[in-house]
Amino acid sequence: MTMLVVQSSTEELPELEALIERRRALGLDTFDEWWEGVYRVVGGPSPEHGLVVARLCALLLGRCDPLGLWVVTPMNVGIDKWDAKVPDIAVTRPDTARTSPAYMATAELVVEIMSPREIRGEKLPFYAAWNVKEYLEVDLPNGTVRLLANRDGTWEPIDSSEVIELTVGEVLALVTTGSTTGSGSTGGE
């Protein structure tokens, strides 16, 4: 496979804007993100990654529905075409403000299932700036889980969620059930 990485602006290469719009029109941009004006093309997840998303969603739905919280996968947080991230799962309130019809202004909890090329915690400054309350990170290749609470822009490790009934231990047990940490890639970024 050949990959060409272009570092240019849409002003310099107007065809990039057309490519982005084509990806959107074809539904290929589901996981793509904007990082302060830089568009990142993100491939879909591997089966192992998807399995963990499904397991976590099943667990979260049972706990969030009685509280009137939404469990959304994937979900856009931020501002379209400028700075937006797409967590694998988000827990949000139905009345959460939006920056546009498909983009939320925050979330109660975001879940990021790490892919091999992702950097642990790379999105934390973004999520802190958007007042996300909690960040759950699942690192499949290393078999680790961490849960962090946003304390006025500083992330602190916690063992148990303050948003919903959820512990790091039970997420770790759920993630390591079966063959979710097999030798295959976890896909995504």
Protein model, in words:
The two termini are 16 Å apart. The protein is globular. The protein has a domain at 45-176: Alpha-Beta Complex (tt1808, chain A). The strands form three sheets. It has a six-stranded mixed β-sheet with strand order 3-6-9-10-11-12. It is built from four helices and twelve strands. 24% of the residues lie in helices and 26% in strands. It is of the alpha+beta class. The longest helix is centred in the N-terminal third of the chain and has 18 residues, at 47-64.
Structural class based on helices, strands and sheet pairing: alpha+beta
**Named CATH architecture of the domain at 45-176:** Alpha-Beta Complex
Kindly, what is the distance between the CA atoms of the first and last residues, rounded to a whole number of angstroms?
16 Å
Number of strands: 12
Shape: globular
Mean pLDDT: 83
Helical segment count: 4
Radius of gyration: 17 Å
Q: How many strands, which pairing sense, and closed or not: the largest β-sheet?
A: 6 strands, mixed
Order of helices and strands: HEEHEEEEEEEHEEEH
Within the largest sheet, what's the order of strands?
Answer: 3-6-9-10-11-12
Helix content: 10-25%
Residue share in β-strands: 25-35%
Show unreliable segments.
Answer: 1-6, 179-189
The fold-level CATH name of the domain at 45-176 is tt1808, chain A
| Broad CATH class of the domain at 45-176 | Alpha Beta
